[in-house]
Amino acid sequence: MPSLRGLARAVGYAVLGGLIGFTALIVAQAFRPRLEIPIVVDRSLPWVLFRGFYGIERYSGPAGFAYTHPTADIRLPGLDRNVAWTFTVTGRATRPPEAGGQELAVFCDGVVAGRHQLSGSVDALSVTAPPRKTPGLWLALKVDPAQTIGNEVPLDVGLQVLKVVLAPQGFAWPARQAMRAAVAAGLATGFGVGFLGLGLSLTAGLLLLQGIACAVLATHGLGAFPPFTDHVQSFAIAAALVLLTAAILSRAWRRPPAHTWQAALALTAVVVVIRLLVLVHPSSQAGDSGFHLTRFAGVLEGRFFFLSDAPGGQFPYPVGLYVLASWMRELMRDQVLLLRAIAAVADACAGLLLFLFVRRQTSSPGAAMATLVLYFATPIGFQTQARAYLTNAFAHAAATASLTLFGPAATGLVETARVAGFGATAALAMLSHVSSAVTLSACVAVLALIWIRPGHPPSWRRAGVWALAALVLAAGASWAVYYRHFDGLYRARPSAPAVEAAAEAAPLLPARPAPRVPVQRYEPHQTQWAPGWPALASRAGAAPVYAWRAYGPGVLALAAVGLPVAWRRRRVDPVASLALCTTAVCAGFLGLGLLSPIDLRYYLAAHPAIAMLGGLGAAAGHAAGGPKRIAAWLALAATGAAAIAYWFSWLA
Q: Do 198 and 296 belong to one domain?
């Protein structure tokens, strides 16, 4: 049980966290008082706040518009009404002037605040909501007459909304629920970190990071209102409970964890809270969420066999993430949030396991902590989740976890548990995404064959043998459970029809010409393949650009420093050996993608290896002292700051 001193420290840190959260929100509100509600493609308007609005459609480029019903409401609970607010709505009429035109009436709290005769072009109507003592604002838009659009499914529409802005005429306090959420998040995180026993400086830094992030998110778009404010509190409380559980268990075992482990756990908790909040923010893009929601619904109905169009042909689409989520669906009503949360938490656990692996094998706390920071800071890791490639993100986390369990260990129970964990996580990765299954199998097989060669320590050779055996068992289990149902696909290589409509008949799918896969905007693994030397030269020339985007300059610079360090230590350091082998295998898959249409997600597969190389490079710079130590610390700090900025760049 915690001592009174530990309890007092936790309470003190909780108060500090609440103060930081409140202060950061007030400062952010002062710098960003305007409430701009983006109408952007691939986003949605929360139905709790916006009623009578249709889905967002494309207007020009990323800009979008949303049709309203003839009458639509905007409700902003908790908005400070001690000052007047100017409400401006920009939109277009849905009825041409020659047909009689339309009139827009805006109501504030049930009272008409303004009327405007809409023209055929873009109109902007501004009204003033007067101050009052009761917080909250209710706006209503009424367009008369309505216009019917659509042939197959007629819709009665009012206004084509392009932009909504609210600006206070003076200083306005943040919305009440935003202040409650900021204080509650700071209290919860401070209390949890206090139980871990971290020092004041590190704790204050983590609380400041979370407080500023929550403040920025709360003052961006609709972040000051439900349901986002509910997520702020629930995510922070959940993270605090994890920290409390870890602290209590460490005291119960009477083996307090090392200071670096405490710092790693606290950092991971704060990072996963911030990243999840960015992902579920109303201004964050939906990505492939709808696709996964459809597949998840199919799994809940008992359909498990799907195919996917991908570079190189048709492939089975495993359902490991969906099956796991089906066991947890009672935890959250929002199924997209459930899938995102599982993928994000799995990625955080993989990062922690990577930290433990480097810490155990190198006996270097600095290298382990730098690896953890770089793992979270690498752009492609967050990009996969931001675009909602959730099955790939989850499988990647499982594959990373399995790699961390592949290494020399003491004989007996520890080695048995590690081999069992490696096999289980490898099978989970194989049952979640085909690309992860292939890249993980290749990396483990190559490294195991290298380790069992003469000249390596007996513990390495034993680990290689056990890893090969566990890999074969994991592959056999995944084939028996899922992939054997696609034997017809492997023989005839048909292309998938509408898979959701015929998923039960996956082994008997008819053949049809494979479609051309279009070039994706930022996906280095899905560049369209074409034969010929000019196309090959173009793909090869794009590879460095893709690597720069996938990993970022800071991570690549530290990895370049760590590469010769790893090469020198490859025969004595399992971390160096694993990082070099994984990087080499992924480079081989890059070559395969350049020469053939078979293109796997090798940039993502190399993510943990690049982070380990960067961790070794940062530790080497720190050990060198002098200017090199300063350069290593500056590179880590700059990389972390760039990563946070990159996360927030996904908001509209």
A: no
**Inside any domain, residue 643:** yes
Higher pLDDT, 68 or 308: 68
Which SS3 state, helix, strand or coil, does residue 125 take? Answer: strand
Concatenating the DSSP letter of every residue in 384-395 gives HHHTT-HHHHHH
Decide: 414 and 462 in contact? Cβ < 8 Å: no
Amino acid residing at 476: G
614 versus 546: which is more confidently predicted? Answer: 614
**CA 643/CA 388 separation, integer angstroms:** 18
CA-CA distances (angstroms) from residue 494 to 298, 312, 316, 426, 432? Answer: 22, 12, 11, 28, 22
Angle at 608 between CA 606 and CA 613, to 5 degrees: 90
Q: What is the pTM of this model?
A: 0.90
Same domain, 189 and 311: no
Taking the C-alpha atoms of residue 440 and residue 505, their distance in angstroms, rounded to an integer, is 29
Same structural domain for residues 163 and 196?
Answer: no
- Residue 406 and residue 579: Cα distance in Å, rounded? 12
pLDDT value at residue 497: 34
Q: At CB < 8 A and 24+ separation, what contacts does 107-115 make?
A: 107/138, 107/139, 107/140, 107/141, 107/142, 108/137, 108/138, 108/139, 109/137, 109/138, 110/138, 110/140, 113/87
Cα–Cα distance measured from residue 2 to residue 250, given in angstroms and rounded to the nearest whole number: 10
Look at residue 501 and tell me whether its pLDDT is greater than 50.
no
Quick one: 356 and 387 in the same domain? Answer: yes
**Residue 505: per-residue pLDDT:** 36
642 burial type by CB count under 10 A (0-12 exposed, 13-18 middle, 19+ buried): middle
Model confidence at 57, in pLDDT bands (50, 70, 90)?
A: confident
Rounded to whole angstroms, the Cα distance separating 573 from 80 reads 59
Burial of 286 (0-12, 13-18, 19+ CB in 10 A): middle
Q: Count CB atoms within 10 A of the CB of residue 297.
A: 13
| Residues of the chain above pLDDT 70, percent | 90
Is the pLDDT reported for residue 350 higher than 90? yes
Residue 81 three-state SS: coil
Residue 156: enclosing H or E segment and its boundaries? strand 155-157
Token digits of residue 500: 């959701």
